[in-house]
Amino acid sequence: MTEPKPWFDEIPIPALLRHARNTYGIAMRQALESADYDDLPKNGLYVIGGLALGAGDVPLGQLIKELRISKQAAGQLVDTLVTRGYLQRTVDPEDRRKLTITLTERGRAAASVQAAAREQVDAALVARVGEDDVASMRRALAVLIDISREWLDRDDD
Amino acid sequence: MTEPKPWFDEIPIPALLRHARNTYGIAMRQALESADYDDLPKNGLYVIGGLALGAGDVPLGQLIKELRISKQAAGQLVDTLVTRGYLQRTVDPEDRRKLTITLTERGRAAASVQAAAREQVDAALVARVGEDDVASMRRALAVLIDISREWLDRDDD
DNA sequence: TGAAATAGTCAATTTATTTGACAATCAAGA
DNA sequence: TCTTGATTGTCAAATAAATTGACTATTTCA
Q1: Which among A45, A134, B69, B102 is placed 20 to 30 Å from A94, CA to CA?
Q2: Better-scored residue on pLDDT, A30 or B54
């Protein structure tokens, strides 16, 4: 029994993560383009997908942290998303410095196309490795995410 | 037993992948910067890390496919990496159209700093979820990567 | 009230990536 | 051989994405 190591054991985890994420990216982009939502900027998918989750608004500040880009970049990203009709920006009445962003009609439509594509990939994954393995992958990924929090909780501008 | 769903079950897998990868990115960047390898371009980490694997050369064409960027972008990326002393470019004597890229001394040094940081995160992960779960995560990621191959094998320029 | 901190904008620059046109090399058939 | 077509990569110009630095408005809190 020579037990040859499978190819994916030789590849660094970050590279696996990159390519795996890319699968979703390709599927989602493709679906969005077929539905004529072809003008989403690079990080646009994340914004659209993320907003759809919490049924409602998201403070701009959250994007800044999650995307790990400068607040200026976040501002510009939201700008183009607003210009292209996906988002709406409103001031938080509680604190008039803050902005929250919300999906427009078009934004929600795009989000649902994207979610459908995502779920298709999810389904293909479950079909091959089973629910349990997917659940344990989620757990492992969550742990990785958590590790970064301890690694550095600083870097908050 | 209310069994509240853990937070990471609510997050789309691509988002988990993104953030998980970011953990590695942060750790590696940080390590590299402390060691004065602070001039690596965005995709530089991938190139450096990838090359270190196969002890030797990598055809430029491979980068193009793996990074999913245009050949021009790949060319420029390699350009700056060469300029900054990380890479060397040589023509393939078999086929003089082809280029292969190799790490320089500096490149190898940076690669090993990067690898060390990566392994530190790997270790932290193993410490919390165990070898088996990491192995099954790898398997699941490999399946995801495979899915994209079937999803579209076209798009080869 | 009046600093200091927070949230975001504006303008300019740098970095990353793409598109289009091209040059060199190789492969294969008349 | 020649010639045609495909492959591999470069050059140059344009666009997109992200950063830096300086600034405005708002809130907090001593």
Answers
A1: A45
A2: A30
The whole-angstrom separation of Cα A43 and Cα A18 is 15
Q: How far apart are CA B24 and CA B26, in angstroms?
A: 5
Which residues on chain A are in Cβ contact (under 8 Å) with B119? none
Residues 11-70 of B with CB under 7 A from strand D: 59-61, 64
Residue ranges per domain, chain A?
12-156
Report the residue of chain A nearest B23, measured CA to CA: A148
Show contacts of B88-94: CB within 8 Å, 24+ apart: B90/B57, B92/B59
A95 CB-to-strand C distance under 7 Å: yes
Element spanning B100, H or E:
strand B99-103
| Shortest CA distance from A26: residue in chain B | B148
Query: What is B12-156's CATH topology?
Result: Arc Repressor Mutant, subunit A (1.10.10)
Strand C and B72 CB separated by under 7 Å? yes
B38: which 2 tokens? Answer: 């602070």
Kindly list the distances between the CA atom of residue A84 and the CA atoms of A28, A68, A105, in Å, as whole numbers in the listed order: 18, 23, 12
> A99 beta carbon < 7 A from strand C?
yes
- What's this model's pTM, rounded to 2 decimal places? 0.92
